[in-house]
Design goal:
globular; single chain; two-stranded antiparallel ribbon; mainly beta; SH3 type barrels; 6-stranded antiparallel sheet
Length: about 80
Amino acid sequence: MSHYYNLCCQHKGKVVTIYEKCGKMHVGKIVHVDHQHVYIEPMTPGVSGYGWGFGGWGWGVRPWFPIALAAIGGFALGSAFFWI
């Protein structure tokens, strides 16, 4: 888990693809990282909904979504790809 924490901290502000162990894929810009979650701003056009965004939790045009660091099975930045 600390591997993905360090990797996410290193690439904060960059667009990444994160693959969860369950098979879900997330594409977005890393906006925040803590020791349990990485928060991304989705790059999917028209994404809106309930999530952490500028000013706090609530409805927003570009919400942030948390992904548990323990759930990450893969991480891609550009052509690089890292597995556990």
